[in-house]
Inverse folding.
């Protein structure tokens, strides 16, 4: 059977943690989209693992698969594998022949494009990993795939076609000189060919390259359990997110079928778990109606002087510190705000959540009051889900509901003794959420460690 893990908000909901919690009975953990823009954290017995590309099941020794919907930077992959081996793990990772490869020119162009956009304050705040430029090449049908790294003639031919286009983009569109870039070799066909041919050899020698759809289908036919590990989140989905402040792939559940090569029914008959942070965090730019305070450079219209609401700033700082809300990949402070229920209704509809995992309940403990946006006011009307345009979303004012706060509790005791040991006020908050989304709560995160999750439902 299958279990699909989907971020219900803006990324960093604690997906890695839930993959790990439910990972024991999984045989294969599959990433179906994104690349090393992801930063998934697993904490076990105080040991923290931050995974960008290797599926989070690696911590439990599960086979990992980077399926066709992913964009793969082989350098990051091998570095991450080496780092995990140094820590005593034995990661077994397979990569789809159809997955697209991130080249150094993609990363360089990601930076150049963001820099150019920043002149008009329209940068996305990307992770700078070359994700957008690689998916752009995929859609434009000039991408280079993992399978091509194993075929020297094809690789050379494709590089010879695409690299001059990239050079022209840098020089003629952006008016920069390749020689003056930090890494001119990123635009040199011979260097790229040698380096990436070697990556191809390493992947081939290690037997890592597979046909993802066939691999997953065989695993399921053999009675194995497959977990699909979404990266990013619903509101940064390229189709269903707040375009253009999005990533370039589909983190929503549909992405698991297209990005893996299995039929919709395979994903649809399994569990689809929406991962929800009990409040909201965001890295990068774009609207955020429930934002508290702001982060200079990311919050639209916000500068170093702040927005003038000291109480909101204080609360934001408190939540950011308690929740460790700093980017796993970039270390940037994350923007924080109250839970946004219209956003979650949107997410639940798109992915068809069969259950919810609500993380970070501990972070809000000790506050007098906890708020949520129950709906928005948009141009004088009450709306209960996310408007389709980002401009309309930016005009939404949250209609807040206030809940009693809950006292601090001992995470280990509560996790060991079960859901009923959560403070009553916290259970009221969860019941409201479950009712609004018409979806049961499968588990509740009360701390970052594997053991600090209250599990109500065994999903397998
Ligand atoms: P992901 O990208 O969705 O996998 O999430 P990240 O790993 O980027 O960010 C989640 C952060 O919160 C990590 O540092 C986790 O260790 C931590 N975390 C996960 N669940 C909980 C929880 O229930 N409570 C607390 N306090 N931290 C959590
Ligand atoms: P995980 O899997 C949070 C955001 C970036 C930026 C936008 C586009 O850890 O939840 P990109 O580099 O993908 O082109 O950036 O998307 N972003 C994430 N935010 N969590 C992530 O991944 C993210 N991956 C990308 O900050 O706003
Ligand atoms: Mg993350």
């Amino acid at each position: 059977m299958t279990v699909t893990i989907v971020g219900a908000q803006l990324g960093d909901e604690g997906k890695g943690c839930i993959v790990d919690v439910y990972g024991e009975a999984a045989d294969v953990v599959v990433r179906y989209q994104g690349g090393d823009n992801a930063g998934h954290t697993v904490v076990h017995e105080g040991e923290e693992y931050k995974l960008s590309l290797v599926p989070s099941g690696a911590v439990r020794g599960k086979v990992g698969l980077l399926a066709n919907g992913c964009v793969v930077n082989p350098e990051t992959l091998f570095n991450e594998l080496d780092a995990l081996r140094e820590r005593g793990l034995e990661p077994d990772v397979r990569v789809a022949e159809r997955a697209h490869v991130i080249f150094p020119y993609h990363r360089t162009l990601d930076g150049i494009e963001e820099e150019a956009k920043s002149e008009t304050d329209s940068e996305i705040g990307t992770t700078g990993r070359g994700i957008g430029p690689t998916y752009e090449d995929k859609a434009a049908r000039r991408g280079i795939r993992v399978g091509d790294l194993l075929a020297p003639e094809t690789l050379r031919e494709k590089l010879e076609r695409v690299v001059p286009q990239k050079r022209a983009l840098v020089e003629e569109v952006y008016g920069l000189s390749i020689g003056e870039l930090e890494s001119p070799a990123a635009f040199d066909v011979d260097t790229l060919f040698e380096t990436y041919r070697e990556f191809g050899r390493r992947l081939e020698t290690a037997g890592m390259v597979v046909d993802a759809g066939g691999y997953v289908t065989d695993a399921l036919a053999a009675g194995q359990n497959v977990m699909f590990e979404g990266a990013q989140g619903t509101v940064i989905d390229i189709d269903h997110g707040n375009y253009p402040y999005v990533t370039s792939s589909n983190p929503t559940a549909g992405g698991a079928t297209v990005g893996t090569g299995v039929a919709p029914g395979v994903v649809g008959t399994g569990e689809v778990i929406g991962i929800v942070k009990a409040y909201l965090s965001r890295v990068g730019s774009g609207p955020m109606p429930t934002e508290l305070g702001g982060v200079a450079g990311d919050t639209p219209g916000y500068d170093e002087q702040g927005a003038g609401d000291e109480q909101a700033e204080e609360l934001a700082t408190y939540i950011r510190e308690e929740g460790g809300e700093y980017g796993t990949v970039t270390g940037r402070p994350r923007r924080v705000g109250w839970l946004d229920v219209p956003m979650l209704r949107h997410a639940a509809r798109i992915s068809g959540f069969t259950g919810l995992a609500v993380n970070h309940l501990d972070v809000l403990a000790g506050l007098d009051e906890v708020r949520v946006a129950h709906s928005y006011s948009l141009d004088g009307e009450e709306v209960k889900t996310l408007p389709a345009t980002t401009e309309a979303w930016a005009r939404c004012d949250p209609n807040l509901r206030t809940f009693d706060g809950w006292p601090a509790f001992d995470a280990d005791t509560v996790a060991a003794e079960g859901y009923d040991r959560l403070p009553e006020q916290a259970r009221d908050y969860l019941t409201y959420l479950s009712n609004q989304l018409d979806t049961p709560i499968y588990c509740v995160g009360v701390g970052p460690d594997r053991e600090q999750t209250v599990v109500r439902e065994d999903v397998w």
The mean pLDDT is 96.
